[in-house]
């Protein structure tokens, strides 16, 4: 199973999201072609109600603990409640261009 699919499966099981986007952004970095090491996650879940951002991110990191120990190098998280998601018009910021490694 691909890393992206593992992430999607685990987050769906753990958070029952209203909305989930998992984007492999490895191509934007100085990694070999076909790498799965840099991801952007937009996760909208009622489970985030009343939880500060750091607790939301810790919960996601806990769900992806195995992947973070070796397969994932970078994980950009956008965690929102449904109310926050709708207030933002169903949008999350894009990742900035990579300025490190050979892509600078």
Number of helices: 4
The amount of helix comes to: 25-40%
- What coarse outline follows from CA principal-axis ratios? globular
Question: Radius of gyration, rounded?
Answer: 14 Å
What is the total domain count? 1
β-strand amount: 15-25%
Uncertain regions: pLDDT < 50 for 5+ in a row?
none
Q: Can you write the helix and strand succession as a string?
A: HEEHHEH
Mean pLDDT equals: 85
The counted number of beta strands is 3
- Assign the CATH architecture: 2-Layer Sandwich
- Could you describe the largest sheet, including whether it forms a barrel? 3 strands, mixed
Please describe what this structure looks like.
With 104 residues, the protein is an alpha+beta fold. The chain has one domain (3-70, 83-88): GMP Synthetase, Chain A, domain 3. Helix content is 33%, strand content 19%. A three-stranded mixed beta sheet has the order 1-2-3. The longest helix has 13 residues, at 3-15. The protein is globular. The N and C termini lie far apart (32 Å). The mean pLDDT is 85.
Quick summary:
This protein has 104 residues and is α+β, with helices and mostly antiparallel strands. It is built from four helices and three strands.
Helix and strand arrangement:
Layout (H helix, E strand, L loop, with lengths): L2 H13 L3 E6 L13 E7 L8 H11 L1 H4 L5 E7 L1 H6 L17
Parallel strand pairs: 2-3
Antiparallel strand pairs: 1-2
Search tags:
GMP Synthetase, Chain A, domain 3; alpha+beta; 104 residues; 3 strands
């Amino acid at each position: 199973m691909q890393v992206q699919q593992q992430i999607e499966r685990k987050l769906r099981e753990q958070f029952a999201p209203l909305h989930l986007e998992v984007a492999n952004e490895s191509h934007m970095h100085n990694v070999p072609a076909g790498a799965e090491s840099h991801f952007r996650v937009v996760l909208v879940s009622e489970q985030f109600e009343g939880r500060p951002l750091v607790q939301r991110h810790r919960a996601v990191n806990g769900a992806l603990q195995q992947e973070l120990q070796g397969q994932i190098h970078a994980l950009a998280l956008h965690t929102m409640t449904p109310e926050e998601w709708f207030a933002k018009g169903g949008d999350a910021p894009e990742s900035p261009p990579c300025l490190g490694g050979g892509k600078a």
